[in-house]
Each structure stands twice: as structure tokens, then as C-alpha cells.
Write a structure and sequence with these properties.
The complex is a heterodimer of chains A (360) and B (127). Chain A is α+β, with helices and mostly antiparallel strands. Chain A has 3 domains: 3-50 and 141-234, Probable tRNA modification gtpase trme, domain 1 (Gyrase A, domain 2, 2-Layer Sandwich); 53-139, Aminomethyltransferase beta-barrel domains (Alpha-Beta Plaits), CATH 3.30.70.1400; 279-352, Elongation Factor Tu (Ef-tu), domain 3. Chain A has helices spanning 8-13, 33-42, 62-69, 117-127, 151-158, 201-214, 225-234, 269-274, and strands at residues 3-4, 17-21, 24-29, 44-48, 53-58, 82-88, 94-104, 107-112, 133-136, 142-147, 171-177, 180-185, 194-199, 220-222, 280-287, 298-301, 304-314, 321-328, 337-342, 345-352. Chain A has a 6-stranded mixed β-sheet with strand order 11-12-13-10-4-14, with helices on both faces. In chain A, strands 15-18-17-16-19-20 form a 6-stranded antiparallel barrel. In chain A, α2 packs across α7 (225-234). Chain A is globular. By secondary structure, chain B is of the alpha+beta class. Chain B contains 4 helices and 9 strands; from the N terminus they run βββαβββββααβα. Chain B has a 6-stranded antiparallel β-sheet. The chains are: A alpha+beta (360), B alpha+beta (127). The A-B interface holds A 28-29, 32-35, 226, 230, 290-292, 294, 313-314, 316, 321, 343 and B 38-39, 41-42, 44, 60, 62-65, 67.
């Protein structure tokens, strides 16, 4: 039985096409995936991301636990800053990717993928040690993402200066947006400038209305899961279950920045080390032939299969289809001409540098 | 509410058929179909000369999210395809009934078709 987020009625009222996703009923689109994608790239879009999971580590051993569970280094994460990390399994594959907010001296607020929330909670509980309290607060948190070049201008209409985080991957813990208490973070999954706002579920609908109203002269429109996917793909941001999973190591997925092999032991460290040198790596593909390439398509170099795509779609802003693929490490050079098999046909593509799109 | 045009015939899989004469038909997707599919970004049309077989996939359309097969409502020979759709598949979203996809001549077998009223009824019940 799927759950509704606190914003379900808003989605229906805005004309959202509701689908089931990660156990929740969410809008895949309102006015259309392309219009929504373009709005985020040129003006602003509003997303309900309340389905994401939130967990908290608190106590003298909170940092030690996070450091052990996650591949990135958190010893130097200051209060008010955010950091991305993969969470690995023993063999060096990925359990989930997540972001960590340091909210206090010994307090860390971690946001996980909706689809993995229960798995992550069970995994974490299995590995906790020492003096730490771990709570799953997902059901007490709603989240709205405001993304696009106009997002700061919009937020400024309803939030005072001190409530607006300045630097990317920083946040304001108890900010006020039109009188609603929110954690306001300068993060996002679109490749554009923007914010993610965390609030109580009972305040979510009001916050949504406030933002929609504040943004109406800036071109703000509601955006669904369809645009969320095309935006992140265009920006070459990985999606769990596609670019990485329990069998793919974070280094194979190109998440080197999130893995600190020189820190003290963490779960998966030896597993990742055993897979070096890498035999396969994530690459970007620009489709040069006719066709849309999606996930699970075999990639060929001169008749030999060198890997498979992990995600793919038509990019509304760039105007051509792209894909990400996990291919043999011997063939990752940008400029390499390959063919991708799509429903029995071979479509020409070229390996390109990532990201496909970078904001100006 | 999805538009349904008088004078056309309709299939359960949301294709429309225009009888150009006794043995020639023109085929496209209904307004309901384009609305369900969302923004179309790619169309794969048959080649002129291809054989059309009733009930078999003859073309496909891709929206940003997914691929959808188009099933031929007739058996015959593909006589023309609408090349405009290749570069601008969004024409189907803009005006589904003006965006014909392909024409079939020497039509032999015809499938189970509905008239406009029956299709409207079908949409009300099934959709």
C-alpha cells in the first residue's frame, strides 16, 4: 500500500499525474517533462522530495560511527556544512549514496534515498557501536526542493538573509521561511543553483503554497519525478540502482571524490582496494545516431561488447540523447566511437567527458 | 478531456484510422494516446514498402520516459510515411489528428474498430 506525502493534495490540485515510486504516490509530471526540465534550467522548479529518508546520529561516538559506515571523511566536516558519501558493503559495492549534515557538535543528520531507507536503517543498526543514538525520523520530515537560476531571488522574498545559506553544500539549521521553521540547504539534484528545504510534514503544504506564490512572477512551476530524472542525468549525477548498486564499487562509478582510502578503516575499504586496478568504469555517452538509449543496453566497440548502459534519456536542454554506461576500463577514452544496442538495432554513440551539462 | 474526432475509426490501443478509399488507410495516434505518453521525443516509422500485419507492432514512439509500440490496425503494404514526424515528433502532441504517421494500401485484413461514439464510450470506461 503506497504512502502519500504531506503534499499529495497539492500535486492533484496542480494537475500532477500520480505514479507509484519507492512506496509513495508522487507526480511524474504536471505540465510536461520537457517544460518542467526547461523551467529548472532557465527559471525555477519546485519538487516534492518528501519521500527521501532522514536519519540522525547523536552522541560522543556519532562521528566514529559515521566514519566507519561511510567512505568519505567526516572528521573535518564543520557544523553548517554538508557532504556526500557512498555507504559501502563488505565487498566494496554500494549500499546507498547519501548526504550528511553536521547539525551539532556530536550530531549528524543524514539523508538517504527513499527506495533504500529501510535497507539503510537495518544496515546501520547492525553496525552501530559505542555511545551513539540512532533514529529514523523520515516520517517526521517533509522536503521541498526549489531549483533553478531564479531560486535565490524567489527564496529572498520569503526568507531573511541569515536564513539563506550562501555556499553550495552548506545549510542553515533553523531558518524561517515565511514563519515556517525549515532547515534550508544549498544542495540539489538538478545541476542548477537551488535549495532543499526540510520542514515538519504539517507545514509542508503551507510552505509549498508560499513558495509557489513567491515564485509566480519568476516563472516557478511545479516539477515531477520525470523532470527530476532528466535533470540529474543531463548533469551526469548518479542514481542508486543504476550507476551504482551492491555490486558496483564507488570507484567504478566514478565517485572518487566521495571515497577516502587513506582514512582509518571503513566498511568496504578492503573490498574496494581488492578491485584495484579498476576493470570497469562509468562513462558518458552522447548518442550520435538515431534513437533514445536507456538503461541496460549493451555497448559495443567494433562488434565486441564492452559494457552496458546504466541510465539514458533524451536531454531536453541539450537537445540530444545521452546515457551513462559501465564499460571496460580499457575503453573509456572520450572520443571513442561505440554502438549501443537498442531493441535489436545498433545506434551510434560517442564516449564524452562528464558532466554532459554544467550550469554557466 | 481527450479529443475524439468524428469521421475517424479507432482501435482499443488508441490508434485512429482514416479511410482514404476502400483499400487505403491513414493511421495516427489519438489525442488520449499522446496525452498519456507525454512529450514525444522520437518516432520510429516503418519504411515504404514494408508489410503491415494486423495486430503486429509496426512503429514506435518514445516519450522522455518510455517507448510505446504502435500496432497496425490493418494488413497491407506501407505506401507512405510522414517524414515531418522524424524531426518534430512533438507535432503528435500538438495535434494528434493532423499528425498522420503512415499510410497503408492494398488493405486486406481489418481489425476490430470503433466509431467516434464507441471510442468515447471506451475512454470513459477504460481510461
Amino acid at each position: 500500500m503506497e504512502q502519500k506525502t504531506a503534499l499529495y493534495d497539492r500535486h492533484v490540485a496542480c494537475g500532477g499525474k500520480i505514479v507509484s515510486f519507492a512506496g509513495y504516490l508522487l507526480p511524474v509530471q504536471y505540465s510536461g517533462v520537457i517544460a518542467e526540465h526547461m523551467a529548472v534550467r532557465t527559471k525555477a522548479g519546485l519538487f516534492d522530495v518528501s519521500h527521501m529518508g532522514e536519519v540522525v546520529f547523536e552522541g560522543p561516538d556519532a562521528l566514529a560511527n559515521i566514519s566507519y559506515l561511510l567512505a568519505n571523511d567526516f572528521a573535518n566536516l564543520a557544523i553548517g556544512r554538508v557532504r556526500y558519501s557512498p555507504m559501502c558493503n563488505i565487498s566494496g559495492g554500494v549500499v546507498d549514496d547519501l548526504i550528511v549534515y553536521r547539525t551539532g557538535e556530536t550530531c549528524y543528520y543524514v539523508v538517504v534515498n527513499a527506495a533504500n531507507r529501510h535497507k539503510d536503517v537495518a544496515w546501520i543498526q547492525q553496525h552501530l557501536f559505542g555511545d551513539v543514538q540512532f533514529t529514523d525520523i523520515s516520517d517526521q520530515v517533509a522536503q521541498i526542493a526549489l531549483q533553478g537560476p531564479e531560486s535565490e531571488a524567489i527564496l529572498r522574498k520569503v526568507a531573511e538573509e541569515p536564513c539563506i545559506p550562501k555556499k553550495y553544500y552548506s545549510f542553515v539549521d533553523m531558518g524561517l521561511v515565511a514563519g515556517i521553521i525549515c532547515m534550508v540547504s544549498r544542495t540539489g539534484y538538478t545541476g542548477e543553483s537551488g535549495f532543499e528545504l526540510y520542514c515538519r510534514p504539517e507545514d509542508a503544504a503551507t510552505l509549498w503554497d508560499v513558495l509557489m506564490d513567491a515564485g509566480k512572477d519568476n516563472g516557478l512551476i511545479p516539477c515531477g519525478l520525470g523532470a527530476r530524472d532528466t535533470l540529474r542525468l543531463e548533469a551526469a549525477m548518479p542514481l542508486y540502482g543504476h550507476e551504482m548498486d551492491e555490486d558496483i564499487s564507488p570507484l567504478e562509478a566514478g565517485l572518487d571524490f566521495g571515497v577516502k582510502m587513506n582514512k582509518l578503516d571503513f566498511i568496504g575499504k578492503s573490498g574496494i582496494a581488492k578491485r584495484l586496478p579498476l576493470t570497469r568504469k562509468r562513462v558518458g555517452l552522447k548518442v550520435t545516431g538515431r534513437g533514445i538509449v536507456r538503461e541496460e543496453c549493451p555497448v559495443y566497440l567494433a562488434e565486441k561488447e564492452i559494457g552496458k548502459t546504466t541510465s539514458g534519456t533524451h536531454c531536453p536542454y541539450l537537445g540530444y540523447p545521452v546515457a551513462m554506461a559501465l564499460v571496460s576500463a580499457a575503453h573509456i577514452e572520450p572520443g571513442t566511437q561505440v554502438e549501443v544496442e537498442v531493441r535489436g538495432r545498433k545506434v551510434a554513440a560517442e564516449i564524452v567527458e562528464l558532466p554532459f551539462y554544467k550550469k554557466a | 478531456m481527450a479529443k475524439v474526432l468524428e469521421g475517424l475509426l479507432y482501435t482499443k490501443t488508441h490508434e485512429w484510422i482514416k479511410m482514404l478509399d476502400e483499400e487505403t488507410v491513414e493511421i495516427g495516434l489519438t489525442d488520449y494516446a499522446q496525452s498519456e505518453l507525454g512529450d514525444l521525443v522520437f518516432v520510429n516509422l516503418p519504411q515504404v514498402g514494408d508489410e503491415a500485419v494486423t495486430g503486429e507492432s509496426i512503429a514506435d514512439v518514445e516519450s522522455v520516459k518510455a517507448v510505446s509500440d504502435i500496432y497496425s490496425p490493418v494488413s497491407g503494404r506501407v505506401s507512405e510515411v510522414n517524414e515531418d514526424l522524424l524531426d518534430a515528433p512533438e507535432i503528435i502532441n500538438e495535434d494528434a489528428y493532423a499528425a498522420w504517421m503512415f499510410r497503408v494500401e492494398n488493405v486486406t485484413e481489418k481489425g476490430d474498430w470503433m466509431d467516434a461514439a464507441a471510442y468515447e464510450q471506451y475512454l470513459a470506461e477504460e481510461a
